[in-house]
Model the fold of this input.
Amino acid sequence: MSLFITLEGPDGSGKTTQARLLAGYLENRGIAVLCTREPGGTKLSEQIREVILSKVNHSISDETEALLYSAARAQIVAELIRPALAAAKVVVCDRYADSTLAYQGYGLGLDLDALRTITRFATGGLVPDLTFYIDVPVKDGIARKRHGETNRLDEKNIAYHERVRDGYLEMAKAEPARWVVIDGTQPVGEVQKQIRNRVELELKKRGF
Ligand code: TMP
Done:
């Protein structure tokens, strides 16, 4: 039994909290879990994350950014995610390839087909079994994020974040068997309950 779950959502949607709660819940149920994040997860991918998010690199081109995310992804897939799935673990990943389509594709306007090709190359075609989109209105997401430290990417404008959100909703609509859209304005516990219910269904399908 292996299961690959990703969480997507705008900045400040609470998906990191939800990923950790889900991983803890599964572990308590006696299931082996790998909980990780993108960009990051491995030493090399975390180094790439630093490069991407650093305010020093404000002149980074959109194409460079897309390729750096993809490079970080290629490494985490090879080094962590594939081995974990091969060991029959449940993988919970905070962001994955859909982030590149949403942010660099729908958000920045890079060619979606080119990004899909690069993503396939980077991941060897590994697609999640289940993807949760934690949906919050753009203004709520930005307000929540502002309580913490901001980085270079927070400074992008609201219209960009609206395009990202619309992109996510379009992808979710196009592939309803994989995507689950959850109203992220609900209390943390309620969001988590809905995630768990859906994960339990998937586990049952796999005879767990
Ligand atoms: P985080 O806040 O979830 O850690 O994500 C860091 C930022 O990276 C977030 O603003 C979204 C962005 N991002 C992309 O633009 N493309 C990608 O492929 C990934 C994985 C993240």
In short: The helical segments are 15-28, 43-53, 62-86, 97-107, 112-123, 138-146, 158-174, 188-205.
